[in-house]
Amino acid sequence: MKSVILYQKTRALAKQYIDQAQDGQMMTIKDVTRTLEQNAKFHAVCEDVAKSGMKWMDKTRTAAQWKVLFVSGHTVATGGSADMVPGFENEFVNLRESTAGMGIKRLSSLLEYTLAWCAMHEVKLKEFDVNYQMAPSRNGVSDDI
């Protein structure tokens, strides 16, 4: 069965799939995950922060480390909690949400949080389109939901 984004035109098709489903089959309806454009923008911002020379805890950080910091900070700022646990080798690990599982709205919120942090810390972002639509509309059939 193909995944479709629900709009008025595709609701009838979704109902038809439900009516045709056999016992034991499952249909999942959920928010669309982040767009590739959102993902690329977020990673580009993390890369810009890493290249800016900005320090956190007296050290420059890699783009991957900035990503962890932004996702963790955003989680707490939006009412979630940080779950720090000892790892297998007694290191501390932040068990954080994954950006891959974020919907369009959640990643938009993360991008807004990250951009605000960069503005407050005067981090210059290379070629970031300030007119970027944070939650772009998507039409048609999708294989990523």
Word description of this protein:
- Helix content is 42%, strand content 7%.
- The protein is built from 4 helices and 4 strands; from the N terminus they run ααββαββα.
- Helix 2 crosses helix 3 and helix 2 runs parallel beside helix 4.
- The C terminus is likely disordered.
N-end to C-end Cα span: 12 Å
Overall body shape: elongated
Q: Main sheet?
A: 2 strands, antiparallel
* Average pLDDT level: 84
Low-confidence stretches: 131-145
Beta strands, count: 4
Binned, the helix content reads 40-55%
Assembly type of the chains comes to single chain
At the first level of CATH, the class of the largest domain is: Mainly Alpha
Helix and strand layout, with pairings?
Blueprint: H1 8-20, H2 36-51, E1 55-56, E2 59-60, H3 63-77, E3 84-86, E4 92-94, H4 104-120
Antiparallel strand pairs: 1-2, 3-4
Key traits:
145 residues, mainly alpha, NinB fold, two-stranded antiparallel sheet
Give a quick rundown of the structure:
The chain is mainly α and 145 residues long.
